[in-house]
Amino acid sequence: MNKEKFTLIGAGLTGPLLATYLAQQGYSVEIFERRPDMRKESISAGRSINLALSARGNHALKEVGLYNKIKPNTIPMKGRMIHDLDGNTHLQPYGQKENEVIFSVSRAQLNMDLMTLAEETGKVTIRFNHQLLSADLEQNKLLFQLSDSLEEIELPFNRVIGCDGSASILRKSIVEKADIQYVKKPLGHGYKELTIPPLESGKFRIEPNALHIWPRGNHMLIALPNNDFSFTCTLFFPMTGATSFETVKTEKDILDLFQSQFHDAIKLIPNLVEDFQKNSTGDLASVYCKPWHLGDKALLIGDAAHAVVPFFGQGMNASFQDCSTLAKLMGQNKNDWKTIFNTFSSVQVENGHAIADMAIENYLEMRDHVNDTEYKKRRNVELKLERMFPGQFIPRYSMVSFHQIPYAEVYQRGGKQFKIIGDVLKADPSGQSIDKVMVEKMLP
Ligand SMILES: Cc1cc2nc3c(=O)[nH]c(=O)nc-3n(C[C@H](O)[C@H](O)[C@H](O)COP(=O)(O)OP(=O)(O)OC[C@H]3O[C@@H](n4cnc5c(N)ncnc54)[C@H](O)[C@@H]3O)c2cc1C
User: Fold this and answer.
1) Is 51 in the pocket of ligand 1 (CB under 6 A)?
2) Angle between helices 337-364 and 315-332 (to 10 degrees)
3) pLDDT value, residue 320
4) Per-residue pLDDT tens for 327-350?
5) C-alpha 209 – ligand 1 centre gap (Å)
6) Is 32 helix (H, G, I), strand (E, B) or coil?
7) Cα distances (Å, whole numbers) of residue 277 to 169, 270, 274
8) Do residues 314 and 302 lie in contact, with contact meaning Cβ atoms separated by under 8 Å?
9) Residue 370, pLDDT above cutoff 70
10) Range list of H helices, 161-302
11) Which atom of ligand 1 is found nearest the CA of 317?
């Protein structure tokens, strides 16, 4: 029986999932969360109303026993529905197999279900309205502010794990104390959410089983379906510059932008101007940090360790895979926290960096390349190669979204495959014929 008590900071998506894994291995957990309990008070779940859940996330939800509860409330998305400038649409499937789909899930519902699951273990307590202000990692003390009274309290901890998201205070304290490499790279582009409501008949206004994209070069609009038959649209757009969130402000600016770039979306978003002006603009950045731990005392996980931009739909999935990996290490190295934290950090850091880089690359693909003739030709060759070399050649998107292959390996294999596709097209620019022997020699 494990008696040790863990302190977790943050009851977003990662905190309660990790708490459940810890509880299932016999540990007690106390989570401190700055927000009130969203199951009791109507508050926003924060960024992005819905999220794309894929294999890595599903795997962790299966491990802790939440998958079957979540699954009926998800909406499968088979591919990208591309909206051209002239209003034409076409579907680019994500994969070639029936089960190669990703799922739209409500962030708030998932967060609430994860908290309830954690509490149901009987070993997890969530203290809401506790905002971590700083951590004294020398004296094992945490300073919190209570959001209702603004009172500050100091509490001791034994081992602390930061699940407090991309602006992590625990990370700040670790970086101040130890020799940690840390950089936060702003993308320069931010996002704004808008809503496509259901039709009056209560149905979806556009195809629900797809992730809709309006790719427009240096910016794009996307839409994911919700259970209430609405869609959440997200405009990704430069933060500053001649045409940016800084300059598009008035009703005329907003309508001009949509008329010239997303004409077919105007009729789908009845409250376009109001939503645009009222809804906040979120900024986006990638966090690169190494290592993710301080001895056997403190650890970072999820966005606190590796916030990534959302274009591969992997931030949460990567965070859930972190929890699964950590749980496996806990099982293998019973209570040897030095080894557990150290191994976790050395294994996962390069994976975190790889998905951060791939997510930035995918922004360029989604907003700019998906409609290029060259991209489409490459994609055709990629799919042919997958059919020719099953299991050996797996498109990068599929390795990320439908497999558990570590991201660093995906990045490396993806680079080699990119070269193979280039060589195939060099030999036959139409991409019709493929020299099987040449490809075989190039495959790892
Ligand atoms: C626009 C957008 C779209 C996205 N889409 C996807 C997607 O489709 N698929 C996907 O996999 N990922 C997506 N992500 C990424 C995903 O949201 C994150 O990776 C995920 O939320 C990480 O979970 P987390 O628990 O680590 O951090 P968070 O969800 O940020 O949770 C952190 C928690 O810590 C609490 N907290 C913060 N500071 C303190 C403090 N000082 N004291 C106490 N509590 C604190 C916060 O209130 C919060 O509850 C998207 C992100 C954005 C911005």
Assistant:
1) yes
2) 160
3) 98
4) 999 999 999 999 999 999 999 999
5) 25
6) strand
7) 31, 13, 5
8) no
9) yes
10) 169-177, 251-261, 263-266, 272-278
11) 11
